[in-house]
Design a protein that fits this description.
The protein contains 14 helices and 5 strands. Strand 1, helix 1 and strand 2 form a beta-alpha-beta unit. A 3-stranded parallel β-sheet has the order 1-2-3. The protein has a two-stranded parallel ribbon with strand order 4-5. The model has no long low-confidence stretch (mean pLDDT about 95). Helix 10 packs antiparallel against helix 13. By secondary structure, the protein is mainly α. Bound molecules: adenosine-5'-diphosphate (ADP) and tryptophan (TRP). The site of tryptophan has 13 residues, from strand 1, helix 8 and strand 4. Adenosine-5'-diphosphate binds next to strand 1 and helix 1.
Length: about 325
């Protein structure tokens, strides 16, 4: 029996290369050796996105994104969270085992409260219960499929720990292994990818390089990367510049060594280095962009694929609910 790898990605629009290297690419790599279950966390996105048209477009975009990045739907269970009602049943059951204090300490909620306090607003202003209980739904996503590993970016560490806490609370209460305790797999090699302005690349900062921006747009974004004011002739340190940080993600070892030595030698301006960066980024992203555009042109095809995935996934989810209900005395 293969081990199970599971991850979810929110449908919050325009996936960027931080999402690609931090989450999508490592997850697709794991799918080669694990039994993979990858899904679109559309109910999680509902906490933020209240515009129906936007959410439905985002859902298809994120689906097309995974497929364009190489997810093989014949080899991976690929579905929408919203198509698996068992996830929400489990989420409700898990609520009974989740301390309210644990939710008070969750990063996203704490950050919202802190921002409100700084503004002098009511601490809970703009916080909906979906945001507050976000980690419980995420725990349900993971536990409903008996996952072994959960590939995610570093910022999800706390969510993984909360999921483990909740699962352990259930097991301890019933003195049996209702749930396996899954582990997070956090790509240490990639770490946290910075954005165009040097802060963490994130949709919320608008500092990302979207994976599927048209070629012209991509070029413009790369030209916008912040550099210091060193002149063309000055020797430059590749290890402290953002251009080289991005270059390492896309270039071969030989290309990296060549660019590093040209920068160190002096005589290469930031503009030229950015052109070279654009070349390698576009080399990797353009075949994906083409595939993405083809997939997006057939929304019915995407929907069908996701529906098939859900159909295969539901019996697995239903067995886990039965196991928990039996343990809980609710049959
Ligand atoms: P964002 O911060 O842009 O809203 P999400 O929260 O939707 O991104 O993250 C989706 C996945 O991509 C998560 O697994 C997350 O850890 C990963 N991820 C997001 N930003 C980065 C980044 N800058 N570097 C590495 N991984 C990232
Ligand atoms: N919270 C994750 C993020 O923002 C998305 C997510 C939802 C998820 N459910 C999940 C990730 C289950 C892994 C497993 O990126």
């Amino acid at each position: 029996m293969k081990k199970i790898s599971l991850t979810g990605i929110q449908a919050t629009g325009d996936p960027h290369i931080g999402n690609y290297f931090g989450a999508i690419k490592p997850a697709i790599e794991l799918a080669k050796t694990y039994d993979a279950r990858y899904f679109i966390a559309d109910y999680h996105s509902l906490n933020k996105i209240k515009d129906a048209k936007q959410l439905s477009a985002n859902i298809r975009e994120v689906a097309a994104c995974w497929l364009a990045a190489g997810l093989d739907p014949h080899n991976t269970l690929f579905y929408r969270q919203s198509s698996i009602p068992e996830v929400f049943e489990l989420s409700t059951m898990l609520m009974a085992f989740t301390a309210k204090g644990l939710m008070n300490r969750a990063h996203a909620y704490k950050a919202a409260v802190q921002a409100n306090n700084e503004k002098g607003s009511d601490p809970d202003a703009g916080v909906n219960m979906g945001l507050y209980t976000y980690p419980i739904l995420m725990a349900a996503d993971i536990l409903i499929f008996d996952s072994d590993v959960v590939p995610v970016g570093k910022d999800q560490t706390q969510h993984i720990e909360i999921m483990q806490d909740i699962a352990q609370a259930v097991n301890a209460n019933y003195k049996q292994q209702v749930f396996k305790i899954p582990e997070g797999v956090i790509s240490a090699e990639v770490g946290e990818i910075p954005g165009l302005d040097g802060r963490k690349m994130s949709k919320s900062y608008g500092n990302g390089i979207p994976i599927f921006s048209p070629e012209k747009e991509l070029r413009k974004l790369i030209m916008r990367i912040v550099t210091n004011s060193q002149g063309v002739d000055e020797p430059k340190d590749p290890d402290t510049c953002l251009i080289f940080t991005f270059y390492k993600l896309f270039a071969t070892k030989e290309e990296q060594a060549a660019l590093a030595s040209r920068l160190r030698a002096g005589g290469m301006g930031w503009g030229e280095a950015k052109e070279e960066l654009f070349r390698v980024v576009n080399r990797e992203l353009s075949p994906m962009r083409e595939k993405f555009n083809t997939l997006m042109a057939d929304p019915a095809g995407l929907d069908k694929l996701l529906a098939q995935g859900a159909e295969e996934a539901r019996p697995i989810a239903s067995a886990v609910i039965k196991r928990f209900r039996r343990a809980a005395g609710i049959e």
